[in-house]
Model the fold of this input.
Amino acid sequence: MDTNDILNALGLDAVNAGACARGWIDDTKGSELASLGPATGQVIAKVRQADAAAYERVAATAYETFLDWR
Done:
C-alpha cells in the first residue's frame, strides 16, 4: 500500500481544503501547507490554507449556526 492508496482510503486528495463552514471550503486562494513524512521527508499531502474571504465565511457561518442553536 502506497501513500496514494492510504490517502484514497481516508478520502483525502493530494491537496485538501483547510477551512470548513458546514462543509469544506475548496475555493480558497490561500497558500498550500505541505505535510511531510517524518521517515522520508517527502510530501504526503498538502492543505490549502484559508484566505481572508474563507475566514469571513467561517465566522459568518459559525454565527448563523449559533443563532440557530440558541
